Amino acid sequence: MTTLLIGENSFEIERELQRIVAAFDGRAEKIDGSELELKQIPDLLMGASLFADKRLVIIKDLSQNKTVWTDFADWLPRVSDDIQLVLVEPKPDKRMRTFKELQKAANVKEFKPWGERDTRVAEDWAVKEAKAMGLGLTSALARSLVERTGIDQWRVFHALEKLAALGDVSAEIIEEVVDANPTENIFQLFETALRGNSAKVHAMLQTLELTEEAYQLFALLSGQAFQLAALALSDKPSGEVAKDIGAHPFVVSKLAPAAKKLGRPGARKIIAAFTEADDSMKTSAIDPWVAIERALLKVASQ
Fold first, then answer.
1. Between 3.90.228, 1.10.8, 1.10.20, 3.30.70, what CATH number should domain 119-177 receive?
2. DSSP label at residue 179
3. CATH 1.10.8: which residues of the chain?
4. In this structure, what DSSP letter does residue 286 have?
5. What is the DSSP string of 22-89?
6. Nearest to 217 by CA among 185, 242, 178
């Protein structure tokens, strides 16, 4: 039997592999496909070993090995009935003959990663996973947790492990023991600027400069500025604006009071400040952190 696991959700793929290994009565053979040689294929796929009648062979990233992957389709009909073959390919080229042959011959399972629109999926999953760990997590607390971790299944899982080890959960405990994801830190930075606290903006930037990449941080801040402007320039409720621009409804709703206070003129000034910073970072030798701080100080002055 051949199984093909595809998709960029590394958490769910790893969990599926754990299920497969747990169900197999024996030791799994794990192979790095990127380093596999053609001469090794017959021994891997064509029969039992001296030590076991049945074998579980797991090959990861074989498609990165162009030489073997191209010819692998020819070997699929020869896989022994005594071998359970599992191929793990996060991003296979679906145009290749080997992939097309695997679609016909293998049990294909796809694991898609969570996206920005999957907040509710993440929250529901957290509640279910917490229950399996013996932890009572309400929907409200799951929302707080996902806000803290971001839409990242590994982060959510490791946060739940921390909480389960404590045996208790509350909004205060989540804030205390769960590390904030970079997006959350950056949202707090933008909020601080909107409140006009220039000194704290400077201090937060100094801290973020130690761990974050300036251009990535600026891109996230620009996204916040865009969401703010979309709210200020629209007459629709924040939920509808979030849907229109493909943003998280809760995040957009948190920007609503600031958007109302600034109005359209203030929002345009903020967009102008970020546009100026973007131009400076692209066309001059200015330190990107200086350009970011200048933009945020202009936000704080509104």
1. 1.10.8
2. P
3. 119-177
4. -
5. HHSSS-EEEEEGGG--GGGHHHHHS---SS-SSEEEEEE-GGG-HHHHHHHHHHGGG--TTEEEEEEE
6. 185
- Tell me the fold of 2-110: Rossmann fold (3.40.50)
Per-residue pLDDT at 51: 59
Instruction: Count CB atoms within 10 A of the CB of residue 124.
Output: 14
Q: Confirm if 277 and 252 have CB atoms less than 8 A apart.
A: no
Pairwise CA distance, residues 160 & 215, whole Å: 31
Mean pLDDT by 10 residues, the chain (302 residues): 93 96 90 90 74 83 91 88 92 90 92 86 95 93 89 93 92 87 78 90 87 87 90 85 78 85 90 92 87 92 83
- Give first-to-last CA distance, the chain, whole Å: 65
Q: H helices of the chain, where?
A: 10-23, 41-45, 66-75, 97-105, 119-132, 139-149, 153-166, 171-177, 182-194, 198-208, 214-232, 238-245, 249-283, 288-300
Instruction: Give the per-residue pLDDT at 52.
Output: 60
Selection from 192, 199, 149 nearest residue 174 by Cα: 149
Report the CATH architecture of 182-300.
Answer: Up-down Bundle (1.20)
